[in-house]
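Hi all, long-time lurker, first post. I run a small reading group and we've been trying to get comfortable going from sequence to structure in the token notation. Rather than ask abstract questions, I figured I'd post a concrete chain and ask someone more experienced to write out its structure so we can walk through it together at our next meeting. Sequence below, copied exactly:
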Amino acid sequence: MEGVDRARASERGHPEFDHIIGNSLALELVLAEVERVAPTDSTVLVLGETGTGKELIASAIHHLSARCGRPFVKLNCAAIPFELLESELFGHEKGAFTGALTQKIGRFEMADTGTLFLDEIGDIPLALQPKLLRVLQEQEFERLGSGKTHRINVRLIAATHRDLTEMVRRKEFRSDLYYRINVYPVVLPPLRERRQDIPQLVLHFVEIFARRMGKRIDRVPKETLEAFTSYSWPGNVRELQNLIERAVIRSDDGVLGNPLPLSDTNPVTVPPARRTYWDSQRALILQALRATRWVVGGPDGAAVRLGLKRTTLVAIIKRLGISRPLPKDDPNELAANEDSEYQPTM
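-- Answer (accepted) --
Happy to help. Here is the structure in token form:
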């Protein structure tokens, strides 16, 4: 997700959101979660499909926290071979194994007093998970080839596109490690669930690549924007970014062409099983509304609990079709209102 524009970033007072492009309700909910959890030291698990911008969200959490200005260390666990991953995480001493010609500092040690972002944590091998669990629980570890214990103070932000609960069920991921990292989940919506952000993202990337290539793009045809908006974007914002780069390269007349193959420009229906983001948000909002007796505004209202503006929450409630349950103790009132929507107290 390259996802909030500068105007909204300014409104929120967080320059950390400057590179997050979009104004959709789905994105607003994510940023509200970021603002809520960032000031804490709690472990965050960022969930979302490939290309949704999990690293951007991790960076925003770090820079909104008290650890801002201290190390923000990143490691993609899927990009490191198994035999090297332990050394990357915890470091090693000279001579610890064949090829260990010098001492190496691991990512946990580099991130001391700061934040460690472990992307694709679902790809960490089972054999290494107990050692990871220990450092998260005890904040201490030993480098490979050393008996000396190192104490650290690191906040963990983990991310994955995998279904960790299913991996736990299949015994491919330790349940104790899952519960340790799943302290505060932040779910990123796929691009197809924030389609209203697509035109703004298109213009954002066009500006970047046109400037980088020394080209001038004066117009994005309506037909091209419509094709982008109707496409399913299985690769999410990363795919959109790459296709815009391709389109800018091909442009010779100041008009952005449509880089999508003709067979891919038709709307794609998403299977119901994929529509999980709004289901989870609906459950979260309903929980807050019930806890506040369906009061949205005010200091004790659901909006404050969710970290949202009252107007934003009202808009989300309408979008999700949430309505207050009718009283069950008055059959006449129930009959009179069975086809009407009972709105929460604002």
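A couple of things your group might point at:
The CA atoms of residues 122 and 160 lie 6 Å apart.
Strands lie at 44-47, 72-76, 115-119, 140-142, 149-151, 155-160, 184-187.
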